Each structure stands twice: as structure tokens, then as C-alpha cells.
Amino acid sequence: MDLYHFFDNEKGQVAIYDAVNPLAEGRRQLAKEFAKLDIQTIFIESYVDDESIIEENVRSVKISSPDVSDKTFLTVAILC
Fold it and tell me: Alpha-carbon Rg of the chain, whole angstroms?
């Protein structure tokens, strides 16, 4: 993992591991893995209920993402 290299070889002190949306158990597993290397973790969540922000996020990020197939886009569009 690149984070390990950053901390071990580049004397990194703080890293942001973005786009991680695990459930509580997944967070515990990540924290456990990082703890093995004496890396402290903190998880930050945001909650947005403003429909215009959500819609803009879906349009600008989700739709243009190479990770989203046409079928997934249709599902996202229907759910929104």
C-alpha cells in the first residue's frame, strides 16, 4: 500500500485516505491494519441533506467517474 511506503520511507506524518466508505466493521479492520504499523487513524464523515448539493455531487462526480457504468448511472439516477 502506498500509505505504508509514505510513512516508512518518506517520513510521512499525516495522510488522507480518501474515498473510503466502509461500514463500522470495515473501519475497525482498517484501523487494526494501520495499528500493526503504529499508524493512528481517525475517520471523518460528513452528512449532507441539501438536495441541491447531493444532485450536484452526483452529476459532477458520480456520473463522470470511470467506475460508474451506464447501468450504474441509471440506478443512481433512479434512486436520486
Answer: 17
Question: Per residue in 68-80, pLDDT tens?
Answer: 655 555 555 555 4
Cα-based distances in Å from 45 to 10, 15, 78: 28, 16, 25
Calculate the alpha carbon distances from 52 to 38, 49, 80 in Å.
41, 9, 11
DSSP the chain: -HHHHHHHHS--------S----HHHHHHHHHHHHHTT------------HHHHHHHIIIIITT-TT--HHHHHHHHHH-
